[in-house]
């Protein structure tokens, strides 16, 4: 492995560390609000959610219980992915994928799940009929696309994690 591979690897480890570190408070204080009682959250986080809902008109996060498929994605995130976020942040920060290759396969699983979940969200955001929705929902194609952009950073990061994990696993097989 060349020095440029090692520096690139370290850069990717830093990016993934930052992403998983961000996911911890984001999941705990924001994503869970669509599932659990509002009384659990400080007013600052409730107002952040309200601002997000007004800006992106996200009917899924507004009421996950009305969308069982989305609720299942949320519950997987809360109970399975949440512990992984801590471990991934720790591993990418202290070791990186080259020194601790045991992070590669779980990262691939996480990324594949996230990519497929977001694709489902995008298809529903673009194609669903929200005319009867009681929750705030997109009213036109512009708002539907705007809603999709809210999920785009998670899709992009997951694709990076997926590609990077695949690339590293291929390198391990060759070596």
From TrEMBL:
<keyword id="KW-0472">Membrane</keyword>
<dbReference type="InterPro" id="IPR033118">
    <property type="entry name" value="EXPERA"/>
</dbReference>
<dbReference type="GO" id="GO:0005789">
    <property type="term" value="C:endoplasmic reticulum membrane"/>
</dbReference>
<dbReference type="InterPro" id="IPR051987">
    <property type="entry name" value="Sigma-2_receptor-like"/>
</dbReference>
<dbReference type="InterPro" id="IPR016964">
    <property type="entry name" value="Sigma2_recept"/>
</dbReference>
<feature type="transmembrane region" description="Helical">
    <location>
        <begin position="12"/>
        <end position="30"/>
    </location>
</feature>
<keyword id="KW-1133">Transmembrane helix</keyword>
<feature type="domain" description="EXPERA">
    <location>
        <begin position="12"/>
        <end position="162"/>
    </location>
</feature>
<keyword id="KW-0812">Transmembrane</keyword>
<keyword id="KW-0256">Endoplasmic reticulum</keyword>
<comment type="similarity">
    <text>Belongs to the TMEM97/sigma-2 receptor family.</text>
</comment>
<protein>
    <recommendedName>
        <fullName>Sigma intracellular receptor 2</fullName>
    </recommendedName>
</protein>
<feature type="transmembrane region" description="Helical">
    <location>
        <begin position="69"/>
        <end position="90"/>
    </location>
</feature>
<dbReference type="Pfam" id="PF05241">
    <property type="entry name" value="EBP"/>
</dbReference>
<feature type="transmembrane region" description="Helical">
    <location>
        <begin position="144"/>
        <end position="163"/>
    </location>
</feature>
<feature type="transmembrane region" description="Helical">
    <location>
        <begin position="102"/>
        <end position="124"/>
    </location>
</feature>
